[in-house]
From TrEMBL:
Superkingdom of origin: Eukaryota
Gene giving rise to this polypeptide: hxk1
Protein name, as recorded: Hexokinase
EC number: 2.7.1.1
Enzyme class: transferase
Keyword vocabulary terms for this entry: Transferase
Length: 482
């Protein structure tokens, strides 16, 4: 090795050591994170802090009767681009029937129109589903709706989309979703009765609880991050009134369907949609180990200064954090040759999180997966073995930090949900992040169990990896339980 090569290797080793130190999280840091999040979860339920807390703890009433009969579940994407409907037949004495599901893609003309256009399309979807599945002869069907937006109880007839809704979501901020859906159903004379409108993470929690009664927490790690858990009603200082569609006849043009009615909560627990991705944005930024690359991604995002935790662990951002580190190494001339065409990799969000798993899992001596991905996606070929190892190391550092942070947040949620040594507790996990990188899932679960073992002396907690569509099934469960 020449002096120049030796100096180059020394600089690379130094920088990699610095990056490694930045992305390494100690046990003490994890414990501090759990403590900070647990405190914020508790604080956010207090009346005096509800409007100033990082987490918008949005309660939802959960129907507690065993599901029975045929019901429908509908999911509306946060973007409004896709509507899914399923039908499930529930029986007390046997497992539910396999769901029958249809997916509808919203026409662009309706997406570009006011939100009323999307509701008109929802009516079309319901009618089309009923006709294509020969459900017209049935009695009025209960319909549970789930939507990928934070829903805030208005204290009136329904749930409105919270002001915390994502910037790039369907423009329903402030809209009373329940009321508009009721109006759509009545106006189009659809043979359905809307029984509930819930956030999709809450619906996933309902689905998991139907399968395993010990489930207390559900979390979704997709392009965004969210979690829901069951809370004791007496812990909520400002107890909400919940709207549901009452089944008794009412004074409407079609009294079979009923009208929204305010009812008091008569159950001991409610589901809390935490909007956990917001954690660390205001009061607890020091609890999250932010690096210069995290700050860069945050600064250049569409929501700078917001949803801090989400930007450390979500599928949307892990690849971008990795890309930023690789670019810094390239700028320091420590990665690739000086003649490498960096046009494609210099474009934001082109290094997808899905690329990280095959790179991390490659155990071959020449790490051919790195060469294949960079040649196909970025027109960069002839990568040296040293550069391939560097890329693999960066991917592992970013992914493993995300997994540990996810495990710590899950531990805080389990503790807030009331973990007791004598009672089993299960956690339901889902999301594209775990689909594309199973190592992150395994490490998150290991971190969760290790933290609970350290804090409670009992790390026994069950973990369920939910399939896609769990929110849709949960909406049907909630509808059939009314």
């Amino acid at each position: 090795m020449t002096f120049t090569e030796s100096s180059h290797q020394h600089q690379l080793d130094q920088m990699l050591d610095q990056i490694t130190e930045s992305f390494t999280i100690s046990d003490q840091q994890l414990t501090t994170l759990v403590s900070s999040l647990h405190s914020e979860l508790t604080r956010s339920l207090q009346r005096n802090h509800r409007h100033t807390s990082e987490l918008h703890m949005l309660p939802s009433f959960i129907h507690t009767q065993p599901p029975s009969g045929l019901s429908l579940g509908m999911s509306i994407d946060a973007s409004g681009k896709r509507v899914r409907i399923t039908s499930v037949n529930f029986s007390h004495n046997s497992p539910p029937s396999p769901p029958t599901t249809q997916v509808f893609v919203t026409p662009r003309c309706m997406l570009s129109s006011p939100p009323s256009g999307v509701f008109d399309f929802v009516a079309y979807c319901i009618q089309e589903f009923i006709q294509s599945n020969n459900l017209e002869g049935q009695e009025v069907l209960p319909l549970g709706i789930t939507i990928g937006l934070p829903l805030s109880n208005t204290g009136g007839a329904g749930f409105s989309v919270s002001e915390t809704a994502k910037e790039d979501s369907l423009d329903l901020t402030g809209s009373n979703v329940a009321r508009r859906l009721y109006d759509t159903v009545l106006r189009n004379h659809l043979p359905v009765r809307i029984t509930s409108v819930t956030n999709n993470t809450v619906s996933a929690l309902i689905a998991a609880r139907h399968m395993d009664k010990t489930t207390r927490v559900a979390a979704a790690f997709n392009h965004g991050v969210n979690a829901a858990y069951f809370e004791q009603l007496h812990n909520i200082e400002q107890q909400p009134q919940i709207t549901r569609n009452h089944a008794q006849p009412a004074k409407t043009a079609d009294s079979r369907r009923g009208t929204p009615e305010i009812v008091a909560i008569n159950t001991e627990i409610v589901a809390i949609n935490t909007e956990i991705g917001r954690f660390g944005s205001l009061h607890n930024s020091s609890a999250l180990p932010l690096t210069m690359w995290d700050r860069c991604v945050d600064r250049e995002s569409r929501t700078p200064g917001a949803r801090t935790f989400e930007k450390l662990v979500a599928d949307k951002y892990l690849g971008e954090i990795t890309r930023n580190i690789l670019l810094d190494l390239m700028d320091c001339r420590l990665l690739f040759s000086t003649t490498t065409d960096a046009t494609r990799i210099s474009t934001e969000y082109t290094f997808h999180t899905a690329y990280m798993a095959p790179i991390m899992e490659d155990c071959s001596t020449d790490l051919c997966s790195v060469e294949d991905i960079f040649a196909a996606e970025f027109n960069i070929s002839g990568i040296s073995l040293r550069d391939r190892r560097t890329i693999q190391r960066i991917c592992c550092l970013v992914a493993r930090r995300a997994a540990k942070l996810a495990g710590a947040v899950l531990a805080a949620l389990v503790l807030k949900a009331g973990l007791k040594a004598e009672e089993p507790v299960s956690v339901a996990l889902s999301g594209v992040l775990f689909d594309v990188n199973f190592e992150i899932y395994e490490m998150a679960v290991d971190t969760l169990k290790c933290i609970l073992m350290q804090l409670q002396g009992d790390g026994v907690v069950g973990v369920l990896l939910q399939s896609r569509g769990s929110d849709l099934f949960g909406a049907a469960v909630n509808a059939a339980s009314f």
